[in-house]
Structures are given as C-alpha cells and as structure tokens.
User: Fold these one by one.
Assistant:
Number 1:
Amino acid sequence: MKKYVVVGIPFDGTTSFIPSTRYGPTLIRHSLKYLLESYVFEYDIDLAELDYHDSGDTEIIAGDVVKTLKMAELHIQNALSKAENSVLVVLGGEHTVSYAPVNLLRPKSFVVFDTHFDLCDEYQGTKWSHACVTRRIHELGVDVVLVGVRSAATRQEFDYAKRNNIAWIHAREYSIEKLASAVENLPEPVYLSVDIDVFDLGLASDTGTPEPGGLNFWQVIEAAEWIASHKRLCGFDIVEVAGTNLSSKSGITGGKLLKYLIALCEKNQ
C-alpha cells in the first residue's frame, strides 16, 4: 500500500491580482475533512483506510519566495524520509511553490493543468513569479506538457513554448484524445500540477488570476484517470486555491480534486 505525504506551502508573495492563496492549504484540508465523504465509489477506494500523513505547513518567509522555496524543500525532504514508497501531495499557495517539490524530486516530466503558460522569463521584476514557474521547471531539464491553457502574459511565452517544443492544449480544444497524444510518450516519473484556475469560474472563482472559459471538473478527472493509469506518478500538487472563508468555491473544488487524485493513485498502484 502506498503512503501519502501531504505538505502545505501557504505562500502568496508574488500574487499579482487577487491575494489569499496563502489560505489554500487550510481551505482544501477543511473541505476534505468536513464536507466531503471519504469513500470514492467510482474506484472503490476509501481514503479513511489509506496511509495518509499530513506533515502540516512549511514555514514561509513573507515576501521572499527563494528562501521560502528552500525551506519548503527541506520540509518535504524531511517528511518523505519518514515514509518509504510514498506519493507526495503538495497544497498551495501560489503556483511558484510547485518549484520546490519538482526541484527536490527531479521527475522526468511535468504535466500541468493551468489557464496560463507561466513561461515568462521574468514578471514584475522577478524571475520567481508565479508567472515564471513552468519556465523555471523546464530549465531543470524536465519535459513539460500544459493542459487547459487559454491565456499568456506575453507573446514571448508562446514563442518559448514553440521554440522548445512544449506541447500544450487550449481549453477550447481539450479532448481526452489530445491529452493522450501529448502525454503518452513522456518519460517517467511524472509530476502532476493542477492550478485551480484551469477550471471555469463557476468552480474556481476564488483564485489569484481567474479567467472564464475553463475546463469542467470531470474533464480534469478524465485526464487524471488517463495519466494515472498510463504513467508512474511521483507526486502532485493543487495550487492557487484562494479565499478568505470556508465556503470558497476553489477550496471546495480543490478538496474534491484532492480526494479523487489520491484515490486514483491508490487504484493504480
């Protein structure tokens, strides 16, 4: 049986539009614990029966993303050292926090569900903005596929993706066939990242940079089912969940997504 190690990284120091993703880990945990049932009947998996360890939130340095990422890596490393054969689960926090687990685990591939390319070399004066995270990860030598993209901060992001043969699927053109074609030849292991803003506004209005025209819940689950059944996952994250109260739509969507992703990992162990 797999072990699931959960780490929260409540950082939103580079959020450029709507702050409060620092509350994301709390909102996701609350929804999973108090709102959602533990049994996933579609997969016959009960989360209450799994080896699930929540190591709490990493300490953050407000306003210093580089130091926060280093502290997050140490937290993750320590948590994983106590649990062999484990799957890492990271709860954000702005999308920049994805760099910490990827830099530590060094997966071969990074599949990210996101409204945005996040391929800026620099944004608002820093290379460590949430708008730069996928580029920083690609620069580690990790293969990247983007799913649900429908916005770019700059033309340079689009050009960078084209120049580096980074596959991406527009939200308007998403299909399971396109997803399979983009992911099937990726090397393993794969790290999966879901920016909650990949969902349409009705499911995720509370997030750092919301936009209309996103995917629905079952499209993302369908994609995750394909990935989990065809690729070895070393970890995943759910980021950009925001809000200042426990009724946050993004928090509830994030909690249900967490429930299904853990169940999928268990089903396909």
Number 2:
Amino acid sequence: MGVVLVTGAAGYIGSRLVRRLASSQEVISFDVVALSRSKPVETVVSVLGSYASPADLEVLDEYEIDSV
C-alpha cells in the first residue's frame, strides 16, 4: 500500500485527479492525501495549506508519501 499526494486538489485538474484516484482505490491499494488551499470535494484525507509554505508542508510529515 502506498500514499499518493495530490497538490492543488481543489483546482480543475487536481479535483479530477483526486476523483479518479479515489474511485480506483478498489482496484489498486493506496491512499490519497490532498493538499489544497481550499477543501477538496472528494472524501479523501485532505490537508489545507499551500505547497509554498514550509509550515503547511510540515503537516505532511505524518504521512509516508510515495508519489506526488
């Protein structure tokens, strides 16, 4: 099992990617963590913050992220 981080998860491309990854979890064993400045629509683990903020990125330390 791995962890996939999607940045910009509330944006146009990011929201579609999160939706697609969340629906494929039944076939592939991984977790999705969404990093976004606003709450993503999908029901995945989400971290509110900016990729440009070191303090926000520190929150991601609790996850063992395999792919971005």
Number 3:
Amino acid sequence: MRSVLAVFLSLSLAAGLVVVAEPPGFSGLGHLPSNLPTNQLQSFAFDVSADGSVVAGNSISGNGFVEAFRWTVDSGMEGLGLGPRGLHSGAASISKDGLAIAGIMQTNGFFEAIRWTQAGGLEVLGFVPDGAYRFSSGKGITRTGEFVVGGSIGQNFSMAGFGWIAPGPMFELKSFRTTSHALDVSDSGTVIVGYGGDHGFEVPLQWVNGLISQISSENGQARGVSADGSFIVGHLHHDQGQGAIEAFLWDGDIELLGHLPGGGEASIAYAVTPDGKAVVGSSDSAGGVRRAFLWTDVDGMRSLEDVLIDDFGLDLTGWTRLDSAQSISDDGTTIVGWGTR
C-alpha cells in the first residue's frame, strides 16, 4: 500500500493563464504523529485560506484514528483534537481568514458537526430540530467563520441541509426535495450550494438569501461556490444518472468542463476562483485512473501533473500520481489536495 499524502503547491494564475511570477513550489504536508507503519499513513488536504497560507484537512494519527488538522508554513501540521474517548474528527473547510474550520467529530457513538476556532478550540454544533437520528456534518464555512453549513439527519431519517450561526442553534434549510445537503457557502453567507434529492435522483441546488432554486434539472451536485456567489462548480450525471459524470461551471448557465484526455467517465469540480477563471477538481484519465485537474478559461482542463512538470519544470519524482485537487486560493496561486507516493 502506498502512502497517501496531502499536497501543497504554489503557482501563479493571471487572467486564466499559468505564468511564473515567482519560484513555484510543490510539497507534501506530512502526517500527524502515528504508531502505524509509514506505508499505512494517510493525509488529505481539503481546503485552503484565501491567501493560501493555511490548510485544513485530515490525517491518520495515534493508533489509526482520523484527526482534523490545520497546517501553516511556519508551524506545519497540527492536530485539532479527537472526539471523546479518542474517536475520529475531520475537517472539511476553512474560513478565508484561516482562523476557523468546519467539520465533523465522533461523539459518544454519534457523528456531530463541529467548528474549530483559534480562540475557542473545538465546539459541537448539534443537530437539526426534530431529527430522527443524531448525525450532522459541517461542510462549508463563511469568510470570518461565524456561519457553518452542512447536512444533518432530519425527519424520516432523510438528510437535511442546515445552517448554524454562532452561537447557534442549528436550523434546517428549506427544501422542496425529500433530502438536501449543503456543501459550501459564499464569503458573506448569502449563497449556499449543495444538492437535493428524491428517491435517489439528486439535483444541484442553491439557496440565495434563504430562497432555494435548482441550477440544473439533471442529476448532480453543486460542490463549491465562489467568494461572492457568482460562480458555482460541481458535477452532473448524464442520461438520468446512468451515463458519464462531468464537471460543470455555472454563472447563470451551465458550462460542462469535459474530462482529461483518455478519460470520459467521471470528472468532478470542487472549487473555483472568485473571477471564475480557474477551477480545480479530479477527473479520470487514460486507463481510468483518477487524477487532479486544473481548468482555466484559456487552456481548458489539464492534468495538474502536466501543468507542474511542463509549465513549471517541477520535479515529482517519487509521486505515483496526484489524485485530487480540492481547493484553490482566491488569487489562484495556491492549490491543495492529495496524491500517492
């Protein structure tokens, strides 16, 4: 088994073009201390602050439990703590100022949404009112960290999108679907994106100032939203969910982003810059292997490995592949995700 490692790379994107403005860099973020053999260690970077200086993700720690982490250039990777009795915790997103993180923690047999702040540490956020089962998970957080969105089991054991504004309590987002799940939120909290479903058919949704609407009637999910809510990314299933999965960019209309060369079965977009000119995600490629991609409005979708090697001359010796690009800084100069080596 190869080691899976969170990655951090520094590039420069201007007007959708990849250019060298200062020396580019690429590095693994390491792992939290663990008793496991090296080849069993794993870490995953999920989000990066607006200026690219702080990263949030998850790493195997201790005796094999997953633990949320916060990484900075100066301090490296620091664990945010485990749940009661040393159970799992996980980070999903970080505020743009890098001072707050949203995620999940295993608490007394249940999984519960959490928020970590530099000032107050970990706090649990509860569950939606009248939930049939105690489960919630934080997925998105606003620029200053005061508003968290995600999903919680509601009535009839169906997932329900939620919002939580400090100091709480959690409230359910209105939906015209049986299930819903909020996955990201704009800086100000006015635009929330996610999906809603009925009987296994999901559609990408947005909540704008509390009003819900579909951004497509096709089966799919909205996974990320730009800083001001103008751009939304995600994926759609063609042929009523039975065909290929393809990444999309929405700015009032859907633009399909394609797949990496040799692929064609699945691509998913996770994050977009504020100007909509750069998108990151993962796509299958030749041989059906999933790889991280960078899409720009000029060059389209390219393997992130090709960008690093061909455009920047970076050395990826020792890395089997870059699996997924999960987030990109506001200025497009920093991308985080994970790869295998």
